[in-house]
Amino acid sequence: MEHNSGKHIAQNRAVDVAKGEMFVPLDSDDYIIAEALEIFWNAWLSIPENERWDYSGVGVHCMDQNGNMIGTPYPQDRMVSNDLEMTFKCKIKGEKWGMIRTDIMREFKNIEVKGHFLSESTVWFRIAKKYHKKLFLQQCLRIYEVHEDSVTKQIKSCDYNIESKIVSECIYLNEFYSWYLRYQVKSAIRKPLALTYACIVNDKSILFGNDALINKVNPLLCKVLIFIASAYKIIWVMKNK
Q1: Same domain for 14 and 100?
Q2: CATH number of the domain to which 118 belongs
Q3: Is 235 part of a structural domain of the chain?
Q4: Which residues contact residue 27 at a Cβ distance below 8 angstroms, ignoring those fewer than 6 apart?
Q5: Least confident interval from 154-163, 189-198, 230-239
Q6: 3-state SS class at 148
Q7: pLDDT tens readout for residues 91-125
Q8: Residue 181 contacts by C-beta under 8 Å, 6 or more apart in sequence?
Q9: How many CB atoms sit inside 10 A of residue 25's CB?
Q10: Is 164 strand, coil or helix?
């Protein structure tokens, strides 16, 4: 049996062997309503065939085991947008789900980094930068339930590899920082500071060496914030002596 290398790597393997036109990711601890795939497919077919090349797929909501929608609703049903606009401009929050074209999933695979978690939105955001259209349905098709061994539990307990976190956060900072600055200024400041702190407590280089955090981010403001936050390492070292 293959060692559990993480959901992001398992998804890459699934994409490699997928034979269908569309790809629907699903976690081991999730359920879907009986009509989910039919609703997805009918929604996709409702897009004029000569326009589908410009669409990445179909997005929907998740619900908890009590039938309550998780997160915020979309501004309207059957809205054409993308994950970047939904997250930043429309401020949509909470666990969502979707059906994506298989060829696009092959084009935008997860980075295979050591660790059991790599933020999925790094892929969805990258897709949104190239494919600006996605059809969003105001329907809950996936039942999202958190168990003790789920990825979400690992994230909340910080039980995941620091390398994965560094890769994920550097993608956000390097590729989508302009979105944070425009729509989420607090996050634009907080993310570099939080990443620096995570590197400090995990004894990762911040300022010096080829593998230093400051060399992995490109925006000047991020570098400045990391430099300022690195002063906390002195306090951390003295505190833990």
Answers
A1: yes
A2: 3.90.550.10
A3: yes
A4: 7, 150, 151
A5: 154-163
A6: coil
A7: 999 999 999 999 999 999 877 776 666 778 999 99
A8: 188, 221
A9: 18
A10: helix
Which amino acid, residue 118? Answer: L
Cα angle, residue 171 at apex, residues 167 and 172 outer, rounded to 5°:
120
Is 199 within a domain?
A: yes
- Judged by DSSP in three states, 64 sits in coil
**Which one is predicted more confidently, 161 or 160?**
161
Is residue 125 domain-shared with residue 177, that is, in the same domain?
A: no
Check whether 147 has a pLDDT greater than 60: no
Q: If residue 190 lies in a helix (H) or strand (E), which one and from where to where?
A: helix 185-201
2 half-sphere exposure, CB direction, 13 A CA radius: 7
| Residue that is written with structure tokens 């908890």 in the block | 64
Average pLDDT of the chain?
87
Q: Is the pLDDT of residue 2 over 60?
A: no
Q: What range defines the domain where residue 44 resides?
A: 7-144
Q: How far is CA 114 from the centre of its chain?
A: 17
What residue type is 165 in one-letter code?
K
Structure tokens at 180: 């944070």
